[in-house]
Amino acid sequence: MKKLNIYVLTLALAGLGLSSCKKSFDPKSYAPPLSVGGYTSVKEIAASNLVAYYAFDGSLVDSVSNSTGVGTGTSFTPGFERKALQGGVNSYVLATPSAAVAGLKSFTVTEWYNSPPPSTGIIGIFTLAKTTAFWGNIEVFFENGSDNTNGKVRIHIAKGGGDYTFAVDNVLNLFGKWNNLAFSYDGATSIATLYVNGSKITAAAVPGLTGDANFTDVGKLTFGCVQFMTEPSQTTATGRQDWANFLTGQLDEVRIYNKALSGAEVGAIVGLEGRGK
């Protein structure tokens, strides 16, 4: 009888050892990687066309050129992904653009922002300054009077000595939450396109602008206000204007490409960034 008990105990202990070595089943290990539009990471999208990337994850570094911007009155705060640039009145960042950015012919800019609507003046978001003109080579802002029922987006694009405006009105729900704003210009077709949260809002010719962009007198990249609201102004054409204001919200994940991305590529960027990919 004792031998039988010892035999049973030995089998039980052996079974316990085997069960303790067996790994638990993890369904996630068998799940396919997240794919949006055939991409599993934003890094895969038009990788050879990315000419600047400001993640604002606690620094002002462009991870493509490795140059570092200089902040005035800005800080970092929890963002759409990790940290974001926190703006404020009289606050902005200036950065030296690379030759690839200064020489853009076609382009796409994508960025996440969280801003209240304009209350005391236009809100500048992104500028590639033009040191001799009122508006920048690329100037992006929300027009005064914008609200969540009628958002007014203004994008100025320079070519040589000309300034051309891409104006889009009646855009819904642009304020008070994180949104992705993307815009492109295709020199081959002369078409500009505006996207919000990956959805195309409109695509149209920019009145008077045809062919490749041609930037001249290129100044600093400016984040958080239009080019003439810095101190000193980024342009000799004008100084500070009372009808303009600053981004008092947050800015995150600014990417610049040297081509007009497709709608599918823009949508994939938004979808993947929204999942931290």
What does this structure look like?
This protein is mainly β and 277 residues long. It has one domain: Sandwich (Jelly Rolls). Helices cover 13% and strands 35% of the residues. It has helices spanning 2-21, 99-102, 263-273; strands spanning 50-54, 70-72, 75-78, 83-86, 92-95, 107-114, 122-130, 138-142, 151-159, 162-171, 179-186, 191-196, 199-205, 218-223, 244-245, 250-257. It is globular.
CATH topology: Jelly Rolls
* Averaged pLDDT: 91
**Treating each run of at least 4 consecutive H or I residues as one helix, how many helices?**
3
* Major sheet description: 8 strands, antiparallel
Nearest-angstrom radius of gyration? 25 Å
Low-confidence runs (pLDDT<50, min 5 residues)?
6-22
Based on helices, strands and strand pairing, what is the structural class?
Answer: mainly beta
At the first level of CATH, the class is Mainly Beta
Task: Tell me the series of helices and strands, N- to C-terminal.
Answer: HEEEEEHEEEEEEEEEEEH
Provide the CATH architecture.
Sandwich
| General shape | globular
Termini gap: 64 Å
Q: Got a strand count?
A: 16
Beta-strand share of residues: 35-45%
The residue fraction in helices comes out at 10-25%
